[in-house]
Design goal:
It is built from twelve helices and 16 strands. With 322 residues, it is an alpha/beta fold. It folds into two domains: 194 residues, 3-Layer(aba) Sandwich (Rossmann fold), CATH 3.40.50; 106 residues, UDP-galactose 4-epimerase, domain 1 (Alpha-Beta Complex), CATH 3.90.25.10. The strands form five sheets. The protein has a six-stranded parallel sheet with strand order 3-2-1-4-5-8, with helices on both faces. Strands 6-9-13 form a three-stranded parallel sheet.
C-alpha cells in the first residue's frame, strides 16, 4: 500500500492512462484507483477490475462530484490533446490541456489533496533547444500541444510555490506500448511499425528514416511515473518538468532491430506534416536531475523492447486469426 488512499486517473482510456490505471491498481488495490473516462468506454479490463467514472477535466462540477464521492486524495491528469491532433484544432487543445489542468489544480487545492501528477512531454522543446536537451533550456515549442505543456509546467510550479500544493510531473519522450494504440501523437510511428511488421511485414513511415527522437518503452514509463509519485517531496528541487530518458534511435535503427527477428520486413518513407514537428524536437534528453533527485533508471534498450513488442503483438495477432 502506498501513500494515497484514493487515486483518480483522469484520461484512463488513453495510451498511457489505460496501463497506468492497471499498474496503480496492482500497487494500491483495485478499489482505490478510479478510472476517469470522458467519452470512450474503458476497456473490459479497466471496467471489470475497479471503479470507473465519467469525468471530463474541463467540467469542474463533474470533477468535484467524483472527488467527493470517492474521497480522492491524489489526481493524475492524463487527459490531453496530443501534438498532431492539436494542430488540427488548436483552440480545442488549449481548452482541454489548460482549462482541464487549472480545474484539477483548483479542485486539488480546495479538497486538500496529497498530490497531483501532471505529465509533460518532449513537445515543450523547440528548434532552438540543443539536440541533447538539458534540464534547464530554452522552451519555444512550435505546436499548440507544446505551448500547453510549457504553460502547464509553469502553472503547476506556480501552485507549488504559491500554495504549497504537491504537484509533480515528468517530460515523457515518445512512449511505445503493445496494449493501447496511441492517439494523434507525432511519435505514433514507433508503435505502428511493430503492428505492421507482424501483420503485413511492411510499413510506410510518415517521418524520414534518419529521424531520431527520445523514446521509452511502456514498462519504463509506468515505473518512472510511479517512482516519481512515491518520491520524497522535500528532496525534489524540480517539480513539474523532469526530463526522463531511456533510449534514442532513428526509424532506420528500429527497422534494423525488427529485421533481426523478421528478416523479410520492408519499410518505406512518405514524410507528412508530422516531419516538421519531429524535426523541432531534440534527439535525446539529459535526465541527470531525475536520476539524482528520485533515483530514475530505465530498464529497456531498443533490442530488448523490440523482442518484447514482437512477442506480445505476435501472440495477440495469432489469437485474432484463430
Amino acid at each position: 500500500m502506498g501513500k494515497f488512499s484514493k487515486i483518480l486517473v483522469v484520461g484512463s482510456a488513453g495510451q498511457i492512462g489505460s496501463e497506468l490505471t492497471m499498474e496503480l491498481r496492482k500497487i494500491y488495490g483495485n478499489n482505490n484507483v478510479i478510472a476517469g473516462v470522458r467519452k470512450t468506454a474503458p476497456s473490459e479490463k479497466l471496467k471489470n477490475s475497479g471503479p470507473f467514472e465519467v469525468v471530463d477535466a474541463v467540467n469542474k462540477e463533474q470533477l468535484i462530484e467524483v472527488v467527493k464521492k470517492h474521497n480522492v486524495d491524489c489526481i493524475i491528469n492524463m487527459a490531453a490533446i496530443l501534438s498532431a491532433t492539436g494542430e488540427a484544432d488548436p483552440k480545442h487543445a488549449w481548452n482541454v490541456n489548460m482549462n482541464g489542468l487549472i480545474n484539477i489544480l483548483d479542485v486539488a487545492l480546495e479538497y486538500k489533496m496529497k498530490q497531483v501528477l501532471v505529465p509533460s512531454s518532449i513537445a515543450v522543446f523547440g528548434p532552438e533547444t540543443p539536440k541533447n536537451a538539458p534540464q534547464e533550456t530554452i522552451l519555444k515549442p512550435t505546436t499548440m500541444y507544446g505551448v500547453t505543456k510549457v504553460s502547464g509546467e509553469l502553472l503547476a510550479d506556480y501552485y507549488v510555490r504559491k500554495f504549497g500544493l504537491d504537484v509533480r510531473g515528468l517530460r515523457y519522450p515518445g512512449i511505445i506500448s503493445n496494449e493501447t494504440l496511441p492517439g494523434g501523437g507525432t511519435t505514433d510511428y514507433a508503435v505502428a511499425i511493430y503492428y505492421e511488421a507482424i501483420k503485413n511485414k511492411k510499413y510506410t513511415c510518415f517521418v524520414k528514416e534518419d529521424t531520431r527522437l527520445p523514446m521509452m518503452y511502456m514498462p519504463d514509463c509506468l515505473k518512472a511515473t510511479c517512482d516519481l509519485m512515491e518520491a520524497d517531496f522535500t528532496k525534489l528541487k524540480h517539480h513539474s518538468d523532469f526530463n526522463v530518458g531511456a533510449m534514442s534511435f532513428t526509424v532506420k535503427d528500429m527497422a534494423d532491430s525488427i529485421k533481426k527477428y523478421i528478416p523479410e520486413f520492408q519499410i518505406s518513407y512518405e514524410p507528412d506534416f508530422r516531419q516538421k514537428i519531429a524535426d523541432s524536437w531534440p534527439d535525446s534528453v539529459d535526465d541527470t536531475a531525475a536520476r539524482e533527485e528520485w533515483g530514475w533508471k530505465p530498464s529497456y534498450n531498443l533490442d530488448a523492447m523490440t523482442q518484447d513488442m514482437l512477442k506480445v503483438i505476435g501472440e495477440k495477432h495469432k489469437n485474432e486469426l484463430i
